[in-house]
Amino acid sequence: METLLEGRNAVNSWLERYGVKFGIYKNGVFKEQLFPYDSIPRVITKDDWDILEKGLIQRATALNRFIYDVYHDKKIINDGIIPPEFVYSSKGYLHECEGITPSEGIYAHIAGIDLVQAKNGDWFILEDNLRIPSGASYPMIARNVMRKVYPAIFRDKKILDNRDYGDLLRNMMDYVNVGGGLNVIFTPGRYNSAFFEHSYLAEKAGATLAYAGEIVVEDDYAYYLGLHGKKERIGCIYRRTSDDYMDPNTFVPDSLIGIPNLMQAVRKGNVAVVNALGNGVADDKGIYYFVPKMIRYYLDEEPILHNAPTYLPYYKEDYDYILSSLEKLVIKDVSEAGGYGVVFGRDLDEKSLLELKDLIKEDPRRFIAQEVIDFRDLEIFDDESGGTVMRKADLRAFVISGRTTSVWPSGLTRFSRNPNSFVVNSSQGGGFKDTWVMCE
């Protein structure tokens, strides 16, 4: 335990020294803060991992098929599995993407799927992050530093190696790359919350880090403007910018961090965009409700991993249950992210409960409700007591879809530093751990 404590201090010192921070906008102010590391790892047994791996691949496969279907044949809508108004009212649905088939037919190349483990050992999926999921760089960096500080830990224990994430990215980008051009990681710049990760992943994947103004579209092809005005064709753009800001000529017209006319190059099939534009339709917390049905519909299989018990106020039975049981449910605003818009009914007074009920009545599509899962606490070092304490933690697993679909044998374990909180997001002041997936 003393070795792990020393390792924690070494990693956090390294993270601070090299500016590995997580930035957030709050109340109109940008603030950079350290993402604190705790060196007591989350350990996932081989048996657990085998189940997770199969379930995550199954889920990512179904989600990719759903996104294709939404923008093409719309069979799942026409067959009455998902109400059409529910899809088309999603903020993630982009009518500009109708009929566009991305390179190799893949939409969600990188899925960051958030899970928790209940105290009985069962795993539940909380969210599917399919637009620009972040966080893989932090366990990569932490493991790398710990290897240097205490190499014996990873030599003596049978832990799956997590150093292949860059290779997974490179291989996926090479697979979807159009015309053999450059692989580029496109960043909105240093004021983005995950800017460090953009540069780090570019290095690990052997890609070029590009900013707004360094990519131009000419004659429906994308080019990178390098040193001295050298122009090189781009075959794949791993974008770390939200859909709305990617092309000011198609989406938000005053975006200064986008690539004018990018959609023209995408429509013509002249460049791959990772993750594909428009796949936020499957990232919607309301659409999450239907993922088990997608798995049955597209794959003719039963879901291996289950959603948290979820209610949709769109349906009258669920609507009535939510309003009568609000004080024991978790309410989530489907348009929010990063832990914002999550309300535990048990924490509200009578006046606040009534106000929330009115909001749900006014706009049922805006919310989902879930049962509170008393998920597992993990042990962390506590600076105040000098010992260890137990805190809530989740797991973000990364699923890469290219020539094949695979799950990175690691993940981002986030924990709450607040003893009374179930919200673990980094933007809410949480910390992170390494995730050890055991070989046997």
TrEMBL record:
It comes from the Bacteria. It holds the Pfam family CP_ATPgrasp_2. InterPro entries: ATP-dep_Glu-Cys_Ligase-2 (IPR051680), CP_ATPgrasp_2 (IPR025841), UCP005522 (IPR016450). Residues 41-415 form the Circularly permuted ATP-grasp type domain. This is Uncharacterized conserved protein, circularly permuted ATPgrasp superfamily. It comes from Succinivibrio dextrinosolvens DSM 3072.
